[in-house]
Amino acid sequence: MAQRADVAGPSSRGPDARQAAGRASWGTISREDIILAAVKVVTAGGYEQMTIRSLAGELGVAPMSLYRHIRNKDDLLDEVIDRLLAATWRPAAAVDDWQAWVIEAAARLRDFLVTQPAALHVYLRHPVVSPAAIERMDAMMDVLRRTGADEQTARRAYGAVHTYTIGFAALEASRARGSPGDRNGGDLARELAAYTTAGQFLAGLRYLLEGIGTHTGTGLAPGSDPGGQP
Question: Rounded to two decimals, what is the model's pTM?
Answer without folding.
Answer: 0.79
